[in-house]
Design brief:
By secondary structure, the protein is an alpha+beta fold. The chain contains 15 helices and 5 strands. It binds a DNA duplex through helix 5, helix 6, helix 12 and helix 13.
Length: 296
DNA sequence: CGCCAGGTTGTCG
DNA sequence: CGACAACATGGC
């Protein structure tokens, strides 16, 4: 008979944690919801089930309470922070749409590899690639579930070994990342302490890691809330809401603003028109290029 | 079938 | 420096 740890966390209701919004907003890729609205995922070597019961977050299978407390960063008061963000109308709308997002404190190496896999990929496929990586090279932790592979393990692999997960041109990037982390050429302590720009440069020593992946790794894997990843969606959000960029005052928590904006622009019914308009713009660009090509 | 995806690299002009 | 195709694969 297997025993399970059950942890209770009473959280400030004003923070309004939403598991759906937090676990399915594109910051993590190993959680899924079941028919009873319970979330299943993996933190470290623990397969965990999460659900909210009243004012409590219940975690089955956790290592201890601290693991969950740290993962959700309950030490950080989101109420104050959201008040600051809501001074800006688009952010206020984003919060009104989904204010239950929290930036998780995920494992550094796992985040790095996951966001290398994310490049030029859609979210469903990213999830598939991460699972393939884990089931092929991760340590089994029971019930057919696998932990995320360690950097030691991945650094022993060749690009050919990785071909089984079909991650395409990203394979050599992963091998390089694993090697550099394993040898301490890229290291977490530095990433946590360096000024943002230096930390980005440090990560970009890895082949296949540019500014966007570096910033995602810093924000989601090093808890650098000042990191502001700019992807296609954030470009669209900035274009439509903040053509002159975000207020410098928000820089220290830019990453959190970023995540609310990302979720809002990508999924809110309110931004449907923007998505359609951006799509139209893209088609137009494409048409122009075609005509240009036809001329030459 | 064609478009696109939480980009980065290498190579032109 | 800035634009831009190529990259490997599959979801929709």
């Amino acid at each position: 008979m297997k025993t399970k740890t059950i942890s209770f966390y009473s959280f400030d209701k004003t923070d309004n944690l939403s598991l759906s919004q937090t676990l399915d907003c594109g910051q993590c890729f190993r959680w899924h919801i079941d028919e009873n609205s319970k979330w299943h995922g993996i933190i470290g070597k623990n397969a965990i089930t999460l659900y909210i019961d009243g004012e409590n977050l219940i975690a089955l299978g956790a290592e201890n309470e601290k693991q969950i407390f740290d993962y959700f960063d309950f030490n950080l008061n989101y109420k104050k922070l959201k008040n600051e963000l809501s001074l800006y109308p688009p952010l206020k709308s984003a919060l009104n749409y989904a204010e239950g997002i929290r930036i998780l404190r995920q494992d550094f190496f796992e985040t790095l590899i996951t966001f290398i896999l994310s490049q030029n990929n859609n979210i469903p496929r990213i999830k598939g690639l991460v699972e393939a990586l884990c089931s092929n090279f991760g340590e089994p932790i029971g019930d057919g579930i696998f932990a995320f592979p360690s950097c030691e393990k991945l650094s022993q692999l060749t690009v050919e070994d990785l071909s089984i997960i079909k991650c395409g041109f990203r394979a050599r990037y992963i091998i390089d990342a694993a090697n550099k982390v394993n040898h301490g050429i890229v290291n977490y302590e530095l990433l946590s302490s360096l000024p943002l720009e230096k930390a980005e440069e440090h990560l970009m020593k890895i082949v296949g890691v540019g500014k966007k992946v570096a910033d995602c790794t810093l924000l989601f894997g090093c808890h650098r809330l000042d990191a502001f990843p700019v992807d296609v969606w954030i470009k669209r959000a900035l274009h439509n809401f903040f053509p002159n960029g975000l207020d410098q005052k928000l820089s220290p928590i830019g990453g959190i603003a970023q995540q609310f904006l990302f979720h809002y622009i990508r999924t809110s019914p309110e931004t449907e028109n923007i998505r359609l308009e951006e799509k139209r713009l893209r088609q137009e660009e494409k048409q122009l290029k075609k005509e240009k090509k036809a001329k030459s």
